[in-house]
Design goal:
This protein starts with a helix and ends in a 25-residue tail after the last strand. By secondary structure, it is of the alpha+beta class. The longest helix is centred in the first third of the chain and has 25 residues, at about 5-30. It is built from six helices and eleven strands. The strands form three sheets. Strands 2-1-11-5-6 form a five-stranded mixed β-sheet. It has a four-stranded antiparallel β-sheet with strand order 3-4-8-9. The radius of gyration is 26 Å and the shape is globular. It has helices at about 5-30, 30-55, 80-85, 110-115, 140-150, 175-180; strands spanning about 95-100, 105, 115-125, 130-140, 155-165, 170-175, 185, 190, 195, 205, 220-225. About 30% of the residues lie in helices and about 25% in strands. Strand 1 (about 95-100) and strand 2 form a beta hairpin. The chain binds ligand MTE and molybdenum atom. The site of molybdenum atom has 6 residues, from loops.
Length: about 250
């Protein structure tokens, strides 16, 4: 005689089996499969991608800061225009914010300091195989862009620098997800001191989820754009034009 419990389980299994068999038939039809699962996959994939892009880079404590933070790439733009700005301790420097914005801005150091600022101790990672932990202070790029009022067509933010590579300014670009990331700041201080020339005075970008070459030093202009086609070689940055990845996530 079959014990009652086993009987019930057999019944349940049989029922589930029937349900699955019915479902399997639908799943075997490619078009139905697409309709049943496509939306779910897209939402899950997109959600995962967006959550990943929004995640914060690790932050460190003051005792973890590197005793030496090397300077890389340009250590002094050295142009007559930059020398003149440096000689006056950047009092005449203005960061021009333009392109697809409602209100173009020309911000001095005092303007940037007067905005809500953020300080963060992060690890800088260069593709050339070194890293260093330093402290950076400055207003969030998102706040600056909000002040300028991004137009709907804006998709990217392009940074133009004071130093020249092959006669053209070093440039970089990021998308709006990174532009409005809370750790993306316009740093005017490094390790609690005004940014020095070697590290990008008077202001450099910190975009903490990406590799070192994205962190444009010696900022002169920020432009909101719909496409990267009109800048430099069109790949979105000085190193990208030589073949480096445009999205250099870490
Ligand atoms: N304007 C400008 N920004 C730049 C560079 C440069 O040569 N010019 N070099 C990049 C690279 S490859 C790195 S690793 C970092 C180095 O920043 P650091 O000099 O503060 O170490 O700046 C990045 N930003
Ligand atoms: Mo780098």
């Amino acid at each position: 005689m079959t014990p009652p419990l086993l009987g019930r389980r057999a019944l349940l299994t049989g029922g589930a089996g029937l349900l699955l068999a019915g479902c399997d038939k639908v799943v075997q039809i490619p078009a139905a499969r697409r309709i049943l699962f496509a939306g779910e996959d897209i939402n899950r994939g997109l959600h995962r991608a967006l959550a990943d892009r929004a995640a914060l880079a690790p932050e460190f404590s003051p005792d973890q800061m590197s005793p030496i933070f090397r300077a890389n790439g340009t250590r002094d733009p050295g142009t007559p225009a930059y020398k003149a700005l440096a000689a006056n301790r950047f009092a005449d420097w203005r960061l021009h914010v333009g392109g697809l914005v409602a209100r173009p801005l020309a911000l001095g150091l005092a303007d940037l300091r007067a905005m809500p600022n953020r300080a963060q101790i992060t690890r800088h990672e260069c593709v050339e195989g070194w890293s260093a932990i330093g402290k950076w202070t400055g207003p969030m790029l998102g706040g600056v862009l909000k002040a300028a009022g991004l137009r709907d067509a804006a998709r990217y933010v392009v940074f133009t620098c004071a130093d020249l590579y092959g006669g053209k300014p070093y440039y970089e670009s990021i998308d709006l997800l990174d532009a409005f990331h809370p750790q993306t700041i316009l740093a005017w201080a490094m390790n609690d001191r005004p940014l020095d020339i070697a590290h990008g005075a008077p202001v450099r970008l910190r975009v903490e989820r990406q590799l070192g070459y994205k962190h444009a030093k010696y900022l002169m202009r920020i432009d909101a754009v719909a496409s990267l086609a009109g800048f430099g070689g069109g790949a979105g940055g000085t190193w990208e034009d030589y073949g480096y990845d445009w999205y250099a996530g870490i």
